[in-house]
Here is the input.
Amino acid sequence: MKKIGILIIGVATMFLIIFLIQGKDATREISQLNMHSEEEIQECMDITENVLFPDRFPSADLKKMKYIETEDTLDLEKHWAKKSNYEKTIYMTIDYTMKWEGSGILPEKFSQYTWIIGKNSNQEWKLIDCGYGI
Here is the structure.
């Protein structure tokens, strides 16, 4: 009986670890690339997921990042490059869930949240702006 209990705890622990590991990676959607390479967009998403997003929202879980290159997207990137004095900008959207610590409020979901990052030659990507309606 004791062995069965230990086996059940071991299996449950294994599934919990797998669930937690899988929950860390945000899904990525990239399409219609002409001006940017997939490697460049992946680099932007890596820095967003691992540095920029956690710095901006330490109590949130990043769920999805989406970059679809259209004429409108490219126009917005040109606008933000000029406005922020960056040589390159990337305009994408993100989905995330906010964890409101200690408030008793359920997590709140944010979808299609605008995320704009930029950089100059030989520099790291930096967050320019984010939010709805920008």
User: Anything to note?
Assistant: Residues 10-23 have pLDDT under 50 and may be disordered.
